[in-house]
Structure formats: C-alpha cells, structure tokens
Amino acid sequence: MSDSPAARLQKLFEGHRLTPTQRRIAHCMVRGAAEVPFLSSVELAELAGVSQPSVTRFAVALGFDGYPALRRHLREVAPAEPPAAREESYNEYQQAVEGEIENLRRLATMLADPAPVEEAGRLLAGSSPLPVLGLRAASSQARGFAYFAAKVHPDVRLLDEGGSMLADRIDAAAAAGASALLCFALPRHPREVVEALEHARAAGLTTVTVADSAFAPVARYSDLLIPAPVGTGLAFDTACAPMLLGRVLLEAMADALPDAQARLESFDARAAARGLFVD
C-alpha cells in the first residue's frame, strides 16, 4: 500500500525539533494534506492561525531556502488533486463523513506497519494494573477501551476525571505494580492530561498515547505515541479514527495476554447464566 499524502508529509517532519508554533503548522499541513501544496504562505498562515513569517521560519527549519522551495517539494512528494478538481456536490454533513473516511484511510496506511501497535499491545498486556487515561473530549474513548479491556485484562483502572486526586490514582496504580499507562488525548488538549502524563513518567510508567497528531502537545510526554486524526468538518470534532485505533490496540493487547480467550469464554458463560443479553 503506497503512502497517502498525509503520511508522506508526516515523514517529512519526523526527526526535526520543532517549536510549538512550528508543530501547529505541521499539524495543520498533515490535516489538510490535499490542499497544502496549492496554498501560499499567507493562506497557510491563516489556516494554521500563525503569522506569515512563522511559515517562512518553519520552511527554513525543515532545511529549505523558504516556503516556495518547501511548496515545490510538497508537490513532488505529496501530489494531490487541486481543490477545484475535488468533488464539490456534497453538503456539509456528507463532507464531514467523507472527511472521516479519509481519516480512516490514513489510519489504514499507518497500520501497514503493525510494529508500533504490537509493541503497545505488549506494553499494555504486561501492566497490571493497567491505568487508562482520558479527560474531557477523550473520556469516551478511554471509557470504551476500559470497558472492553476489562473482559480480557485482570485489572483495568479508568482515569476519566481530573482534579487533585488524579495524581494520587496514578501513584496508587504504580504502587500496585503498573508498568504502563494508556492515554487517549484529543483536542482541545487539557493541561491536566499533559501534567498527568508527566507525572506518570516520573512515577516510572511507560506512557502509550493515542493522539490526533504526532505533533500534539502530549507528544513529548509519551514514550510511544500512535496518531489517529480527528474530523473537523462539524462544530465539534469527530473521532472515528481514534476510536477504531483503540479497538485495534485492544486486539493487540488481547493477542499478548495468554489467558484472554479463557477470560472471554468465562464472561460469556456468566452472562448467559445471568441472562444479561436478549440476543
């Protein structure tokens, strides 16, 4: 499977030490990979919410003489149809769905290399207890993962509320033997998530993070970050790709747990005996 334009852009930015403003530009470019090669520096600056000189400095930080040289390179490594050639007959709801379909395609391309997910699965399977962190917009992702993970993992601890007790609960998990923490981090990124990840690493936990971008603010506090883009076509972001990536991580974790199948069969037997489900 060939890399998508977004994946090729991602590779272009890897290995560079970028400032927070430059990471914002890079994130914006990955999310709009189809349009970016056709934007002027002023248009890209407006799209990213930064100044035009910031775009120029960003291009220089990547090793180019300026933005025109970067744009020429983008047209070579991330070719895409110009915006005018794209389908324009969709209404705003259809466009949001099409955007999520493209996000899922990007996720599929990324999963062509299963090594990061398999590594994450081993780390999560080897941690008991397993704390799962997700605040605000990411709380539903963390809750869904924790619900299903509890069927195959012996001790899953959901951390979906902030406040002064969050650090205490991370400390308690570490004291009980946890070796890793799974974090779902979605925009807008709460400061508490960054602080919690920093605290978890200080407590000796390996942090595995699902984030909307490799350039998200949580990146520097994550030992293993696996990106899954969010949709921005509606008033509130949509997170189909992060949700699916969470299920993929569940599969990888279950594969690494020797008694996962036995636990599932035991749950099914108990559920049948109690008449939990009507189907």
Question: Can you walk me through this structure?
Answer:
- By secondary structure, this protein is of the alpha/beta class.
- It folds into two domains: 5-84, Orthogonal Bundle (Arc Repressor Mutant, subunit A); 110-271, Glucose-6-phosphate isomerase like protein, domain 1 (Rossmann fold), CATH 3.40.50.10490.
- 52% of the residues lie in helices and 9% in strands.
- The chain contains twelve helices and five strands.
- It has helices spanning 5-13, 20-31, 41-48, 52-61, 67-77, 92-110, 115-125, 139-149, 165-175, 191-202, 240-256, 260-274, and strands at residues 130-133, 156-159, 180-185, 206-211, 224-227.
- A five-stranded parallel β-sheet has the order 2-1-3-4-5, sandwiched between helices.
- Strand 1, helix 8 (139-149) and strand 2 (156-159) form a beta-alpha-beta unit.
- Helix 3 (41-48) packs across helix 4 (52-61).
- The longest helix is centred in the middle third of the chain and has 19 residues, at 92-110.
- The chain is globular and about 65 Å long.
- The two termini are 39 Å apart.
- It holds the Pfam family HTH_6.
- Residues 5-81 form the HTH rpiR-type domain.
- InterPro entries: Homeodomain-like_sf, HTH_RpiR, RpiR-like, SIS_dom_sf, WH-like_DNA-bd_sf.
